[in-house]
Amino acid sequence: MARILIVDDEVHVVGALRRLLRREGFSIEVALNGQEAIEKLATFEADVVISDFRMRGMNGLELLGQVLRIAPRAARILISGHADLSGGSESGVISHFISKPWDDDRLVADVRALLGGQGQQGPATSGP
């Protein structure tokens, strides 16, 4: 089962993404800021990290730059309604960009494409 770390300082966004991706059969962890995400990556080997761009403290581009260094195999998705990519995609920091509001089917398809089809075992049966 593919493992995804969702990082956003808006609890309702984290909840919506968690519900969507769990329903698709992925193992999910969440973090509410960049520092918490870095700490989670010490024990959670993420296949994908989905991060909001605008967060208090460390922004998503800065976080994904650190993810590239500490978990280079993880796909790095930046999600935002108003991002300034500042060269992130050109430098290889960002694997993929998704605009808010996102389309659920498209987001799932993009995640699956980045994973090469992993996580297609069907809906998860574990708790929240």
UniProtKB/TrEMBL annotation:
The keyword Phosphoprotein applies. The modification 4-aspartylphosphate is found at residue 52. Keywords: Phosphoprotein. Residues 3-115 form the Response regulatory domain. The keyword Metal-binding does not apply. It holds the Pfam family Response_reg. This is Response regulator receiver domain-containing protein. It comes from Archangium gephyra.
